[in-house]
Design brief:
Elements: E1 10-12, E2 26-27, E3 35-40, H1 48-58, E4 68-70, E5 76-78, E6 84-85, E7 96-101, H2 112-128, E8 134-137, H3 154-170, E9 178-184, E10 187-196, E11 199-203, H4 204-211, E12 215-218, E13 223-226, E14 229-230, E15 234-236, E16 239-243, H5 244-251, E17 253-258, E18 263-268
Parallel strand pairs: 1-5, 3-7, 3-8, 4-7, 9-18
Antiparallel strand pairs: 2-6, 4-5, 9-10, 10-11, 11-16, 12-13, 13-14, 15-16, 17-18
Bound molecules: zinc ion.
Length: 273
């Protein structure tokens, strides 16, 4: 998974954190992930190494509970593969990805740098893992109402987060990717696109395949053509993304935009809306 996040520093500590000698976390597919679970460390300070040591030595767990730990300075530590079913929300572990902010928010506040990093991390993960549609506090998972974690108000966190995304979209200099869902002839595709400066950019190959279009890759010019049409595509991690309208024209599809659900609907033929 690509973990280069504009405006954030990510340190991959997956290989260096303490792990149990024999036990290993179970694995899942990325598409099993449905939500991000927010935690606080419930310690005034700390580090991924310290948490991993505690979880392994004291609790006897296979490794650190969290997938990501965010320090007070906003540095994001990548601690587990997203596929690892680590222990942080009990029965919901299988479908949740754990993000822990260092601090005891019963008596402290998360820093602005931590919240900014958390926002950037979540929006990045939602592009990489489109099935991860929701963000909950630990306490909001079934059976955890009693637990004061992450001890910051999740309603405010989520509304700040959506405003943050909107502001991020408005920033031209550092375009941030907001995920865009894609529906083809009434069914949702498993891949997603993203919004860039108000334009929906969709994955060319997946959309063309779903619509039965022909994709050509011109090696010399690094150009992508769909049904012989040249597109203003953008290459991201080896995949081509093109503006939804260009793609629809090349594929002979009708197109609609649903602002509320951030969904591009594409339909064959001259179906009226
Ligand atoms: Zn927690």
């Amino acid at each position: 998974m690509n973990m280069t996040i504009p405006g954030a520093r990510v340190i991959d500590v997956r290989a260096s954190l303490p792990r149990h000698k024999t036990l290993k976390y179970g694995r899942r597919k990325q598409t099993d992930i449905r939500s991000a679970a927010m935690h606080h460390s419930a310690t005034k300070s700390g580090s991924p190494e310290a948490f991993a040591g505690y979880h392994v030595v004291t609790n006897g767990w296979p490794g650190i509970a969290y997938h990501f730990v965010i320090q007070k300075d906003g540095v994001i530590y990548w601690c587990n593969d997203p596929e690892a079913i680590s222990y942080h929300v009990g029965n919901s572990n299988r479908h949740a990805l754990g993000i822990c902010l260092v601090g005891d928010f019963r008596t402290q506040e998360p820093t602005a740098a931590q919240l900014d990093a958390a926002n950037r991390l979540i929006q990045h993960l939602q592009v990489q893992i489109p099935t991860m549609k929701q963000v909950f506090g630990h306490q909001e998972y079934p059976g955890y109402a009693w637990k004061n974690c992450p001890a910051f108000p999740m309603g405010k966190f989520r509304s700040d987060y959506s405003q943050y995304l909107q502001k991020a979209v408005d920033k031209v200099k550092t375009p941030i990717q907001v995920p865009v869902a894609i529906s083809m002839n009434g069914s949702m595709l498993s891949v997603s696109g993203f919004l860039q400066e108000g334009v929906s950019m969709l994955p060319v190959r997946a959309v063309a395949n779903a619509a039965g279009g022909k994709v050509e890759w011109i090696e010399q010019t690094k150009d992508v053509r769909v049904n012989g049409r040249d597109l203003n595509e953008k290459l991201i991690s080896g995949s081509a993304y093109a503006p939804a309208r260009e793609l629809a024209t090349a594929l002979g599809l009708q197109i609609e935009w649903d602002q509320a659900t951030k969904t591009v609907r594409m339909m064959k033929g001259s179906v009226s809306k």
